[in-house]
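Revision sheet: structure tokens.
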Amino acid sequence: MRRSLLLLTAAATLAGATAAGPASDARQAPTHAVELGVGDALTVTGGPGLGTNAQYFDNFECDTDPDTYCETVLVTLTNPYEEQNAKKGRERANLDLLLTPTTYPAEMDMAIFESDADGTQGSQISQAGTFAIVDCPSGCEQINAVITTTQDTEVVHVLVHVVYFAAAGAYDLDITFTD
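Predicted:
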């Protein structure tokens, strides 16, 4: 219900916006950049920002304009190849992202994309779903993804979009990389 009301409010604000095709490259330099190895965890604190990016999932548009506002986090993940642990020549590790607004009102969303070291947006890997998260205040979003590395590619880059769906505030993004 809360999301529907916020969507209606944001939609009214965005009445003049037009949809574009999916983004194929970065619209802005990454807002934050972090590096993690297997077993690492950290928190990125973002914002404050103001946005009503209610049409984000129609076109993945992400920049600093309030109608398309989101912040981006370039995450560099290192998973050294170990033959004894590899299956079919690949190493797998789990990437867990938990987005928690720290100021309200805040309705935020999140999506992750393949990337390169410069933060160029590639194919979408996943997006946050709408579901209850235990021990998390209202408005949290979560993504769990499997990241695969090989002997030739031990470092992988992903680009996280923190979308200000209908929000004015800040957030914490908890990132964990485990095997």
